[in-house]
Amino acid sequence: PQEQTLAVIKPDAMEGHKEEILGEISKGGFTISHLKETVLTREMAEEFYREHREKPFFSQLVDFMCRGPCLMLVLTKENAVEEWRAMMGPTDPEKARETAPQSLRARFAKDVLENTVHGSSDQQHAAEKIHFIFGDISADSDVLNE
Ligand code: CMP
């Protein structure tokens, strides 16, 4: 069955790797069913990452995510959540370079904060974050999947 995930190309990568990452997404067999370039407000970034609000790096994370445009994507594929996470590689690019050298974070990320891309951790988060960013798109995806 087809699955959806929310992918984000973060501000660090928008500054020079956007086209290459979009090329990898397409080569990876994902369908981009929705896409939106946006500069997050602080309120939106805080809400988007609310699961992390107690973390010591939360305010840095919010600053970083608001620094410039992000590209928000809904990716559709069989097993999309896991496949996109594999394509991103581990959160920390140092670890990614050791264990997943072909991954996007291994190739493009600067450090554990400015790590190039985001992807939902499971299907429930995917549904929540897609709704948060794109609103109610369930009707459109039905049309696309017919
Ligand atoms: P992401 O997968 O989008 O989810 C949470 C984000 O917080 C993560 O990518 C990084 O951008 C950031 N992050 C995670 N761990 C750390 C850390 N130890 N220090 C700074 N930023 C972090």
UniProtKB/TrEMBL annotation:
Belongs to the NDK family. It comes from Chanos chanos. The chain holds residues 449 to 594 of 639 of the full protein. This is Thioredoxin domain-containing protein 3 homolog. The active site is at 118 (pros-phosphohistidine intermediate). ATP binds at residues 10, 57, 85, 91, 105, 115.
